[in-house]
Design goal:
Layout (H helix, E strand, L loop, with lengths): L1 E8 L4 E6 L5 H5 L8 E8 L7 H9 L1 H19 L17 H4 L8 H12 L14 E4 L8 E2 L7 E3 L4 H11 L7 H9 L6 H8 L36
Parallel strand pairs: 4-5, 4-6
Antiparallel strand pairs: 1-2, 1-3
Length: 241
Amino acid sequence: GSIAYTGYDPIDWWMCGWAWQAQDQAFRKRNCSKMGAHPPFPFVNGALELLSASLVEFVGTSPDVTAFVARAAARIEDRKAAGFAVGKYNPGCIQRWTAAKCGPHVWQQNEDVVLGFWLTQARPRIKVTYVRINNRATNMGCFGVNGLYARPRQDAVVVHWLKHASGQAYVWGLLHDGVPHNPHNCSAHVFNGKRRGALAALRRIGPPMNRVGPPPQNVCRVGIKHVTGTVCCNAECGACG
């Protein structure tokens, strides 16, 4: 995926000075070092993270990593026991003097940053080489061609953000069967499918890789223009345009 840089404090699970470039302007501007953060390091901000065998062994056997995980897990249990929710957007307060109001601070599900931090600690004992694949690993998008959300390219390594079986089948049609991309069909199959089992979803709408017409009726939306030029006028998707 894309490589970014940040400082990090493993004691309070807090990153500081995030940037796309290997420079420390943001780190210095926010006085991150005075607040306990380690200097900026690279980390992979992507949908697929592959490690060499030596790095996997380091992460799996490092006493420091084991202690970090144990302490993070214990703090989460402490937060729950105190009656506070735990999640990506409610990790508690970094400032200890305000913890009584919003709860003790815990790990914020920033696993990309955490992994990057510990791989940095593996050097110089282990040589770490980062592979940047950028647009070959994107979040699934239907209308964009660039950025973090874009339709997959023919040389894609991984496609992220496929939450339904119909979306997986749609991407298979693009990359394997050579079906032309249609942003409206893509939106219908990738993002509007109901969260059901894979077989149920495929039986409900059929294989999307062979479908180049309008979206299925059960994903119609009133007022949305279909690729056929018709417009839905009612909840039953009656065409009147």
